Amino acid sequence: MLEPSHNKDLPPIPAKRYFTIGEVSELCAVKPHVLRYWEQEFPQLKPVKRRGNRRYYQRQDVMIIRQIRALLYDQGFTIGGARNRLEGEEAREDVSHSQQVIRQLRVELEDILRLLRR
Questions:
Q1: Which residues, 6+ apart, have CB-to-CB distance to 7 below 8 Å?
Q2: Helices 32-41 and 59-69 meet at what angle, rounded to 10?
Q3: Rounded CA gap, 76 and 27, in Å?
Q4: What is the rounded distance in angstroms from the CA atom of residue 23 to the CA atom of residue 35?
Q5: What would the pLDDT profile of 70-114 be if each residue is shown by its tens digit?
Q6: Cα 35 to Cα 4: distance, rounded to the nearest angstrom
Q7: Which H or E run contains 115?
Q8: What distances in angstroms separate CA 57 from CA 6, 22, 63, 82, 93, one per listed residue?
Q9: Average pLDDT of the chain?
Q10: Residue 75 DSSP one-character state
Q11: In CATH terms, is domain 4-117 a member of 1.10.155.10?
């Protein structure tokens, strides 16, 4: 997902469940208004909204934001290009997961077939 080379200048992500927009801003070296804009542009970013419409990001959100930051700032992607790149990675992960489930199901079905043939 995020290569360590893009992560070297950023602070480590603390072991917390939720982060405020200010904390995420510091962890990812991106201003809060940029994070709010990215929420509109990247469907992968869905922070939890609580009382008073306050945003609470989870660890996975922080990692996605760092990946978006790397694509835009380090690799020179446009917003559209970064969005396409992230969607392509999601599709590959979905296909890989589906293939893994199918393989496991096939093994289980073959085991059942062997039991039935006895």
A1: 66
A2: 90
A3: 21
A4: 11
A5: 999 999 999 999 998 888 776 555 556 666 777 788 888 888 888
A6: 21
A7: helix 79-117
A8: 20, 10, 10, 20, 22
A9: 85
A10: S
A11: no
Contact 64, 22 (CB under 8 A): no
Q: Which residues 6+ apart lie within 8 Å of 116 measured at CB?
A: none
67 vs 55: CA distance, rounded Å: 19
DSSP character for 1?
-
86 and 67 Cβ atoms separated by less than 8 Å: yes
Tell me the pLDDT tens digit for each residue of 35-47: 999 999 999 899 9
Mean pLDDT across 18-27: 95
Q: Of 3-17, 49-63, 69-83, 100-114, which gets the smallest average pLDDT?
A: 3-17
DSSP states of 4-47: HHHHTTSPPPPS-S-EEHHHHHHHHT--HHHHHHHHHH-TT---
